[in-house]
Each structure stands twice: as C-alpha cells, then as structure tokens.
Automatic annotation (TrEMBL):
Domain of life according to the entry: Bacteria
One GO molecular-function entry: 3-oxoacyl-[acyl-carrier-protein] synthase activity
Domain Beta-ketoacyl-[acyl-carrier-protein] synthase III C-terminal, first and last residues per copy: 240-322
Record key words, sorted: Acyltransferase, Transferase
GO BP of this protein: fatty acid biosynthetic process; secondary metabolite biosynthetic process
Protein name: 3-oxoacyl-ACP synthase
Residue span, Beta-ketoacyl-[acyl-carrier-protein] synthase III N-terminal domain: 121-183
Pfam families assigned to the protein according to its UniProt record, in alphabetical order: ACP_syn_III, ACP_syn_III_C
Length: 323
C-alpha cells in the first residue's frame, strides 16, 4: 500500500541496548541440542548458522531496563525531550505477565506523560514494522506528532535448549522515534498472511511452568525453508518494482535467525547494502530491526532502505523508506 503523504514522515532517530553478558558457540548450554533429522532429512539445528556472539540477561536483570535505555538514546538522537512523545508503540517479549505488557513499565521508567498513549503490538516478529505503519498513519491523520517505538526480547530465558533454534537467540532492545522531517521517510509497504500455517511456530507453556518456543518438525521447517526463504524476496522485489527500483538502490535489513536464510535473500534481492548484527548479537527476534538500524544508522549510504520481516502466524511484511 503506497503512502501518499505530504511530509517526510518516518524514522527520525534510533537507539539500542544489549546486556554485557556474552554467550559463545562453545557454551555448554548448547550441548543439549538434538541433532536428529526429520522425514525430509533435515535437522533443525542445521538451519541456524552464522552465529558468533549472543547477549543474554542474567537472573534478576530486566528487559524493560534495556528498552528504557534504547528509548532514551533514540529520543536524544532525535533532538527531542520525553515530553515531546505522545504515543508509545512496541512490545516486550516475553512479557512478565500475560497482560499488561512491559511497555507500560517502559512508559513509567521514561517518565512519559499520563496522556501519552501506550499501544502494545504483539505480532512476532514484525512488531517494529507494524508499529512504524501505525505511527505514520497517526501522524498523517494529525492524531500524533512524535511517536516512540520500543521493542525488546528476552527469549534466552524462554528457550528449550534441546531445540535447534535455541542456538541463535540473544537478548536486547531497540527503539526509534517517528515524526516529520525524517531521515528515512516511509514510502510504501507490502504484507502477506499465510494463516494456513498457524501453529507451525509457537510460544507456549509445554512441559514446565515457563513458555518455550517450538518449530514443528514438518510444518515449521516448511515455513522456514519455503514460505520464508522464497516468500520474503518475492515480496521485496515486487515492492521495489512498483517504484522502478532494484536491489542495487537499497540498504536491506531482514529477519536475522540464520545465514541459511540471509545468504539466500541476499542472492535473490542483491541489495547495495545488506545490514545485520547477527554475529554481534545473535537473533534478537522482534528487536533485530531497530537494533540493527541503530547500530548501523550513521553508515547507511543507499538512497532507499527496506525492512523485511517474517513472523509466526505465518506472515511477512516489508517497508520501503526513502532517505
């Protein structure tokens, strides 16, 4: 859907925060991972490659602390004050409570006004992208002036470390300020929902009290190898074609679970810049997009920026920005 806006509404600044604790590939916790193969001869762990360092929260440390720090960075870099923020979007995943979400603790920790609307968006892993769309729509409609988006993940505390995907997870938080006079103005977006794959990837309570993530042996791996691997570049290329653009015009930020996916996406899309933080921070799920954007913000050179997300449900979304 093309965004016909009279102003340059989009991302004004970004910030991030990660824990100081680092988990490496040889960490004993990964020795539990099951390596058996499914009926198609695929072991889940083989899909998660390219990892080096992951940051993780220790017991007694809170995700909201990272989210608040990332938010403060973004507000400062946008040359604004907390009092200028009138909407707060995003999500803390996994939250301490089923409800309310930790985004309310972020509101309190930042000292935001009681009139600042808090809008948690639970749509793993595309929360940041959907929040950008909703924030831009609110500003275009003159219902908001400056919105703050904060996304945080603490999934390392909610992993079944016998599962292959556990190899990739890290903790962290990213934030961005949305407003007029943006460095990256939202131009257009595309989205697709393949709800027939509902249940293929889930976070839920299983054998213990804590919820854990699971990719089902057949449907989940199919989502990874087919829907995500092929569907995401198809969507991005169609979005670019609508505007007479090619991969060579863009800097690209995608979901960052594995080099298996990312190398394929790079080959298909051929971006001028493919930006990631996989080696530095691991798979930050919903926080990967704002963290990677903030980490590389000063060095992005392309005229256009594309954020492309895949997510459970199954769905995928891509946003196109112009510098």
């Amino acid at each position: 859907m093309q965004c016909n806006q009279p102003k340059r509404i989009g991302i004004k600044a970004a910030g991030y925060s990660v824990p100081p604790h680092i988990r490496y590939n040889d960490d004993p916790i990964f020795q539990q991972i099951i390596t058996t193969r499914n009926a198609q001869g695929v072991a889940e762990v083989d899909l998660f490659t390219g990892l080096k360092d992951r940051r993780y929260l220790q017991e007694g440390e809170h995700l909201e602390t990272l989210m608040i720090e990332a938010a403060r960075q973004a507000i400062q870099r946008a040359n604004l004050e907390v009092k200028n923020i009138d909407r707060l979007y995003g999500y803390a995943s996994v939250p301490e409570f089923y409800t309310p979400n930790g985004l309310y603790a972020v509101h309190n920790g930042l000292g935001l006004s009681e009139y600042t609307m808090v809008i948690p968006i639970n749509n793993e892993f595309s929360t940041f992208l959907l929040s950008v769309i909703e924030a831009c729509n609110a500003i275009i409609a003159n219902c908001s002036k400056h919105a703050l988006i904060v996304c945080g993940t603490n999934w390392t505390k909610y992993m079944d470390y016998t599962q292959g995907h556990a190899l990739s997870l890290g903790d962290g938080a990213g934030a961005a300020v949305i407003g007029d006079g943006a460095d990256f103005a939202l131009v257009d977006y595309a989205t697709q929902t393949l709800s027939g794959q509902y249940g293929a990837m889930t976070m839920q309570a299983r054998d213990g009290l804590l919820p854990t993530y699971k990719i089902t042996e057949d449907e989940g791996i199919h989502s990874f190898q087919v829907s995500a691997m092929q569907g995401l570049p198809d969507m991005v290329l169609a979005l670019l074609k609508r505007h007479g653009l090619t991969g060579n015009d863009i800097a690209l930020i995608t979901h960052q679970a594995s080099r298996v996916l990312m190398d394929h996406w790079e080959e298909r899309i051929q971006p001028k810049e493919y930006i990631d933080t996989l080696e530095q921070f691991g798979n930050l799920t919903l926080a990967s997009y704002p963290v990677t954007l903030a980490y590389h913000y000063p060095t992005i050179m392309a005229d256009y920026l594309v954020l492309a997300a895949v997510g459970v449900g199954y769905h995928q979304t891509a946003l196109l920005f112009r510098r």
